[in-house]
Amino acid sequence: MVMDMMKRAQALLETQLQQQMLLIDKLESGNVTGPQKVALMDAINSAQEGIEKLRKELFAYNGTLRQMQVNAKKPRTRQEAEKEILDAELDMFTKQQVFTL
């Protein structure tokens, strides 16, 4: 589950980076009017905000994944394992809610 979300976020990040590069290239071409330049700058800034948000999300997923790997190495009872799974799911849900706001 975490890996799927991480892969999705990574693919979205790559797409956003490509789109931002296209916008920057268009802006640097010099063939834009004043209003187009303003619109391009707004789009570039918006893309940058999305990129930063995705990077933070990926960082959080990496932390969750590392924690799950560390926890997987520890011997534990069934109750401890279920509690850890529920805690990890709650953390992911909370992070998703924060990133969607």
Automatic annotation (TrEMBL):
Keywords tagged on the record: Coiled coil
Which spans of this chain does the record mark as coiled coil? 37-71
Query: Looking at the record's lineage, which domain of life comes first?
Result: Eukaryota
Quote the protein name from its UniProt record: Uncharacterized protein
